[in-house]
Amino acid sequence: MARQIPWDTEAFGFSVAQIETLEVVDPSSASDDYRKFQDWLDAREIKIASCRLPHDRLRESMFLESKGFRFIEMVLHPKIEKLQSLDFSPDNLIAIPALENDLPALREIAEHAFSHERYHIDPRLDPRLGDARYGQWVVNTLSHPRQRLLKVMEGDRIAALFIVESKENQSVYWHLTAIAPQWQGRGYGWRVWRMMLRHHQAEGQDGVMTTISARNVAVLNLYVKLGFRFLQPEMTFHWVREGG
Question: Are residues 65 and 85 part of one domain?
Fold first, then answer.
């Protein structure tokens, strides 16, 4: 099953799709189904299609690659639980809801903070697509019914942004996390991430989960240091229309 992705389509200015579920039971019938999928891509003028699979779905990954998809990245899912039992030292950083007049600054952060994820590392794509995607995500979140846009402040300066969503069982999902480029490499990662855990703890939340690229070693080590554990990884694939 696949669907068009309206937010990426809006950010890129052309149609983008995503395969939601994929299982190869019989290779012959799978090829017949894929031809129908290709017709669907053509009819909607899709230029980029993506698919994310559990790391052990090798039959499906080989099938996708036989159809022109290419492996782009492995993603990891850090998770921490029992926040209410943990002790976080105080810090002068604070996280507060972003306002509409914060959007230019926060969009600027999102457009320049990323370099490891899939839209920046796929050599067939202009990395400016990734910049536009994350910048537009920030703008859209302010009116999103479930996601919240938070700005991390030190005094009157914005140090980072987090897009978060409350889930069931007193947990939070971090959709997007970014430190302002001018603050990177100055030890703020440890402080900001610990402050955010303390922030959710104060809200009464008891767990946090997120997704990161496995190639982002610095962030991977940060999550290990913070005590996160990692769920099963997933593989990400892209199909890009030739000449598109």
Answer: no
